[in-house]
Design brief:
Layout (H helix, E strand, L loop, with lengths): L1 E2 L7 E8 L8 E3 L1 E5 L2 E2 L5 E4 L18 E3 L16 E5 L6 E4 L6 E7 L2 E7 L2 H11 L4 E5 L6 E2 L9 E2 L7 E5 H10 L13 E4 L9 E6 L2 E10 L18 H7 L2 H4 L10 E8 L10 E3 L3 E7 L9
Length: 310
């Protein structure tokens, strides 16, 4: 493993995105409090069916059109909601829904997302009716029950770490250079919202993030855990909810495992972005916030994507 201690920043954060409800629209913020399970508020909520199974854009692409708003002060460190603090939801053809950020009291069991199942906090009948009407089928909005539940990440990659309702890991990082390289190959360029990163960085070469195994964002140390394998979601236009063949068809040509990782086990996957955990998240102290403009200092990296974990 190559050492890459650098006194100069390799890149800087250009955007931060929070997705409060899994598979619904994200929020671009100038700063975000960080926690061991991800940016605060990120994938804290989930829409489920009558069996408690998660709805995602893979099956319900209309979720892409659900706009989510949180109070601006929700992204300040140490802020706690009051009885008048709400998450506001908007969607085509729907009235505005206000969901109280003060803790709901009803617990529901048998909620599941991918391999995990457990209890969650039910956001109530009004939210259930809103999503049921919007999706045209019985639906419930639930919140991760951080008081009683833990959802570990893959122990073979980041033992001891956990996440909320995100697909795999607490954080996902992507570089603007990688977006630019992809868009040069596409007939119609696409926006970064197709890939739903938490952290977008700029100033580094395309796909440099593939190689980062340990780096600092300002003073915080993150670990690049594994390359992010992509599903159907990047093919869904986030403005219309309509899927097409791109960018996955193009990604298969130059970002598949047989191209990037020829000596590794072939799984038929394509990779775009890097999954992260926050390494020093268990230390005490204040100021646990990342901001647009924060520098990235790479501490360790591998020499090629073939050596990266995936």
């Amino acid at each position: 493993m190559a050492q890459a201690l650098s006194s100069k920043p390799t890149a800087r954060i250009s955007s931060i995105f929070i997705y409060p409800i899994k598979s619904c629209r994200g929020i671009s913020v100038s700063q975000a409090p960080i926690t061991p399970t991800g940016c605060r508020w990120d994938r804290q909520w989930l829409v489920v069916n009558n069996k408690g199974r998660a709805y995602t854009q893979r099956v319900e692409p209309k979720l892409a059109l659900v706009e989510v708003e949180l109070p601006n002060e929700a992204f300040s460190e140490g802020w706690e909601p009051t009885n008048s603090s709400y998450m506001v939801l908007k969607a085509p053809g729907m009235n505005v829904l206000k969901v109280s950020l003060s803790k709901p009291c009803r617990t529901t069991d048998g909620v599941s997302v991918w391999e995990w199942s457990g209890s969650a906090l039910d956001e109530g009948d009004e939210a259930s009716q809103w999503f049921s009407n919007y999706l045209g089928k019985p639906s419930w909005l639930v919140r991760f029950n951080t008081a009683s539940e833990t959802r570990p990440v893959e122990p073979g990659y980041a033992p001891g770490h956990s996440t909320l309702f995100s697909d795999m890991y607490p954080y996902m990082l992507l570089s603007q250079g990688s977006m630019d390289a992809l868009n040069k190959l596409l007939r119609e360029p696409i926006p970064v919202n197709r890939f739903r990163p938490n952290i977008l960085v700029d100033g580094c070469e395309s796909f440099a993030e593939d190689l980062w195994t340990e780096f600092k964002i300002n003073k915080f140390t993150f670990q690049g855990v594994k390359l992010c394998s992509r599903c159907k979601v990047p093919t869904i236009n986030q403005e219309s909810g309509i899927a097409g063949p791109e960018p996955n068809e193009t990604l298969k040509k130059f970002r598949s495992d047989n191209v990037l990782r020829p000596t590794q086990k072939q799984r038929g996957k394509v990779y775009f972005g890097q999954n992260l955990v926050w390494k020093d998240s268990f230390t005490e102290g204040k100021g646990k916030i990342i901001k647009v403009g924060d520098p990235i200092y790479v501490l360790r990296k591998v020499s090629s994507a073939n050596e990266a974990a995936a």
